Amino acid sequence: MRTVIQRVKEASVTIDGRVKSAVDAGMLILLGIEDADNENDIEWLTTKIANLRIFDDNEGIMNRSVLDVDGEILVVSQFTLLASTKKGNRPSYIRASKPDIAVPLYEKFCSELSKKLNKEVQTGVFGADMKVALINDGPVTILIDSKQKE
Q1: Of residues 101, 94, 99, 120, the one with CA closest to residue 22
Q2: What is the set of active-site residues?
């Protein structure tokens, strides 16, 4: 699983001109899923995200997690995170899982993250044409790949 995590002041997903989900201060997570992903990736990644210290403490140092600040999270599926640009100029998305594999993993990821936060995670709609708006706070943007564990 690949994620782009953005610390936000606010974020929203609009589909067909209607706001589907919106959050205030917290995180926008773009999530890419590949066939090799499984529940171990979900457990490791959701634990990492819930405890990731990217929010400022009283001294302005990034030392607090989304749990510590009672932040909100919006998770948006994004198969393009698995793009390969090795050959030519047209990205290949062959590594991105098809919906029959990706949807259950996406739903499980959101469910596990909700459990860790003790609040509902907001979502987009898998496979929909979504318009994502955000105010990146910082900006702070973190890339995490469950296969790299860096």
Answers
A1: 120
A2: 78-80
